[in-house]
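Q: Please design a sequence for this.
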């Protein structure tokens, strides 16, 4: 009896899913923006790195690396200054 109830629940969910799929509107057909020859591929713009210290606030990994490098340079400069007579 328990197996039959599970079967009814699964069948009901499948039925609802299929009915919902049928009622969906089909996506609009994509229209070409510009016609290009098949063999020609657009060349992407060359990537240029951002100036140091001016990373996006969303690029937290780059900011962390920049900060680590700044701290390292400050530490080296301090060490160099303290070793100079």
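A: Design:
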């Amino acid at each position: 009896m328990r197996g039959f109830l599970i079967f009814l629940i699964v069948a009901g969910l499948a039925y609802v899913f299929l009915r919902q799929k049928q009622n969906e509107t089909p996506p609009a057909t994509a229209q070409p923006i510009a016609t290009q020859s098949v063999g020609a591929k657009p060349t992407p713009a060359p990537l240029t790195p951002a100036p140091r210290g001016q990373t996006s606030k969303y690029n937290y990994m780059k900011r962390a690396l920049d900060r680590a490098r700044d701290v390292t340079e400050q530490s080296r400069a301090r060490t160099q200054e303290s070793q100079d007579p």
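Q: Thanks. Anything notable?
A: Residues 60-83 form the longest helix (24 residues). Helices lie at 2-23, 60-83.
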